[in-house]
Amino acid sequence: MEDKEFLEKFSQPDTKNYAFNQMVRKYQQKIYWHVRKMVIDHDDANDLTQETFVKVWQNLEKFKGDSQLFTWIYRIATNECLTFLKRKKTKFFLPIGDVSKELLRKLETSDYISGDEIALKLQKVLLKLPEKQRLVFNMKYYDDMKYEEISEILGTSVGALKASYHHAVKKIEEYMEQD
Amino acid sequence: MKKFDIEKNKQLPPFGTPEGYFENFTKNIEDRIQGESVPQKATKRLPFGIPENYFELLPQYIAKRIEALLPKIWYKQPNVKWALAGSSFAILSVFVWLNFFNTNNTIRSADKELAENLKGIPKEELIQYLAYHKPQETLAQAQEMPISQDVYQQKIDISQDTTIPKIPKSITTEELLDNELDRKELEKILEEEIEAEDLDDIINP
Question: Which pTM value belongs to this model?
Answer without folding.
Answer: 0.62
